[in-house]
């Protein structure tokens, strides 16, 4: 398994997709922090830290998960990987673990950038720096939500085996959920928005459920033959 993890991390480091995704995320965060910054009201600024870092990182990480799971099918490199790795589910697990690690780092850095900007504007006391429990919950919600979205992306990539198809499904699905009140903030693509809000519990629960279901389907899907 260690060998497979190293192989997947090497693939992420040496292909342009992950670097382009991370660069775009970093540029977006830095631009918004520099131009917009935190909100004028300290209370609103505190409650906006999670959504600012989580949403702007989580959905790009979802797309990164799709790329990580689907790119081997696009370039046909999945065939030698499966021939040399005992167990297709092990390949999926390694991809999911590597994407989750990248998502953890990206979410932690993004949250730190937004927190630092808010502290600079409103001071540490307003941003709860004297309350480690609040900061721990802030990072836990942000990192947890981003990791769940990245794993949802891995599952989609493994199920569809085509990044372009997944890239089309994600925005269409998000729009469809947004305009349908019963599905809004409860579906797989919009539950992440609620998961980063001031009351993340219900959204996180739905996002976790959808991610678990998608991963379960992916585990079954990877057993089918590689014919595309």
From TrEMBL:
The name this protein goes by in its record: ABC transporter permease
Domain of life the protein comes from: Bacteria
Tagged with keyword Transmembrane helix: yes
Keywords assigned by UniProt, alphabetized: Membrane, Transmembrane, Transmembrane helix
Taxonomic placement: Bacteria, Bacillati, Actinomycetota, Actinomycetes, Streptosporangiales
Organism: Actinoallomurus vinaceus
Transmembrane segments: 20-40, 52-70, 91-116, 136-156, 163-183, 203-223
């Amino acid at each position: 398994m260690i060998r497979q993890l190293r192989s997947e991390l090497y693939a992420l480091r040496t292909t342009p997709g992950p670097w382009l995704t991370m660069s775009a995320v970093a540029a977006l965060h830095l631009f918004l922090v520099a131009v917009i910054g935190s909100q004028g009201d300290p209370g609103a600024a505190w409650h906006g830290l999670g959504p600012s870092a989580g949403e702007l990182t989580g959905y790009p990480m979802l797309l990164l998960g799709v790329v990580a799971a689907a790119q081997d099918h696009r370039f046909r490199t999945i065939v030698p990987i499966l021939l040399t790795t005992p167990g297709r589910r092990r390949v999926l697990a390694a991809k999911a673990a590597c994407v989750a690690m990248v998502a953890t780092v990206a979410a932690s850095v993004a949250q730190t950038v937004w927190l630092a900007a808010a502290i600079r504007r409103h001071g540490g006391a307003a941003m709860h720096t004297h309350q480690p429990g609040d900061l721990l919950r802030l990072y836990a919600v942000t990192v947890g939500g981003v990791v769940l979205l990245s794993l949802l992306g891995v599952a989609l990539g493994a199920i569809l085996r085509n990044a372009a198809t997944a890239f089309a499904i994600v925005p269409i699905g998000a729009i469809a959920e947004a305009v349908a009140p019963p599905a809004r903030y409860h579906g797989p693509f919009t539950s992440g928005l609620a998961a980063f809000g001031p009351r993340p519990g219900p959204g996180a629960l739905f996002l976790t459920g959808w991610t678990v279901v998608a991963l379960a389907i992916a585990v079954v899907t990877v057993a089918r033959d590689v014919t595309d």
